[in-house]
Amino acid sequence: MTKKLNYAKPFVLGILIFLLGGAEDGRAQDQDSPGSVDHPAVTRYTGSIIDGYEVRDFDEYTLPIGPAVKDAASQRVPSKKETLEGKITRILYRGPEGRSTLEILRNYQAALEAAGFDILFSCADKDCGYLFHWIFYKERKQRILNTKTSGSAFDILRDLRYLAAKGPIGGVTGHVSVLVAFDAGFSKLSKRPVTLLEVIEPKAMDTGMVSVKAGAMAKGIDATGHIAIYGVYFDTNSAEIKPESSPTLQEISKLLQSRPSLKLQVVGHTDSQGGYEDNMDLSRRRADAVAAPLAGKHGIDSGRLRAAGVGPLAPLASNDTPEGRAKNRRVELVKQ
């Protein structure tokens, strides 16, 4: 790792990180984007203002931990990455004039390390790979658009630097990415370094929001011989069924009780993320986890149920998008 330089000591209180290094302590906070605030875990470099702000309560996030490369579709993608899920906070800062991107990034690095974070990857300019910033800020849906200038950040940049880190946030392990560059797209801002801070915190999504009634299951099975069930919930890489799955299990039991001759194969499916053998094993264990309470707690004859796992072998959608992968992670009831 690059030898640490003697920067101003950051103020750390628990996980609170206050980044020092600027002389403009009193820069007016009323210049911040309306409704925006610093993240409680990682604050701004002193003298910066918030030019863009976005929070997603639950979404998927790709954390680059390797340089950008070109994929088969000629898109810029990270050569190495971590796929994360949880609450995502994105803050676009315009820093004070006279500060280098190196100074800003090193202050973030020092503060994160002082708070117990591990640096997973860092790079500068060409070492980040050609058009590295496109991974973060190319398509319209990637841009923060709540001010006149935030949407065009990183359009014409120089002196790019980046780091990705992993460490404690609010008692759990979270991730932070910091992208810093000069943006020549606006002459009045070209001397002010722009920083995109992204904080990813593990968070369970709201579940139990959708359930399929026994009657709808019966219609699906009568029409096609099978039906996909999305109301059964597991933690990532776990086959332990979550309590909020109970309403769906109750509806499956109602279906079986209303049709005493019906026999079902309970088939687990995964997306393509992770190893093939691991996914095959996980899908089988999840199918077992659904069949077991139906036979035990709900009193269904175990001879009417057969559990199997097919992993990623029968996708319903492309595994190239978060939406497609979510659709592929399912349990199906198949008529025997």
Structure description:
The protein is an alpha+beta fold. It has two domains: 11-201, no CATH class; 214-335, OmpA-like domain (60s Ribosomal Protein L30, Chain: A), CATH 3.30.1330. 21% of the residues lie in helices and 31% in strands. The protein has six helices and 14 strands. It has a six-stranded antiparallel sheet, with helices on one face. A four-stranded mixed sheet has the order 11-14-12-13. Strands 1-2 form a two-stranded antiparallel sheet. Strand 1 (11-13) and strand 2 form a beta hairpin. Helix 3 (214-224) packs across helix 4. The longest helix has 20 residues, at 276-295. Residues 1-18 and 20-30 have low confidence and may be disordered.
Give the topology.
Layout: E1 11-13, E2 16-18, E3 49-64, E4 68-70, E5 76-78, E6 81-94, H1 101-114, E7 118-124, H2 134-137, E8 157-169, E9 172-183, E10 193-201, H3 214-224, E11 226-229, H4 246-258, E12 264-269, H5 276-295, E13 305-309, H6 322-328, E14 330-335
Parallel strand pairs: 12-13
Antiparallel strand pairs: 1-2, 3-6, 4-5, 6-10, 7-8, 8-9, 9-10, 11-14, 12-14
Helix pairs in contact: 3-4
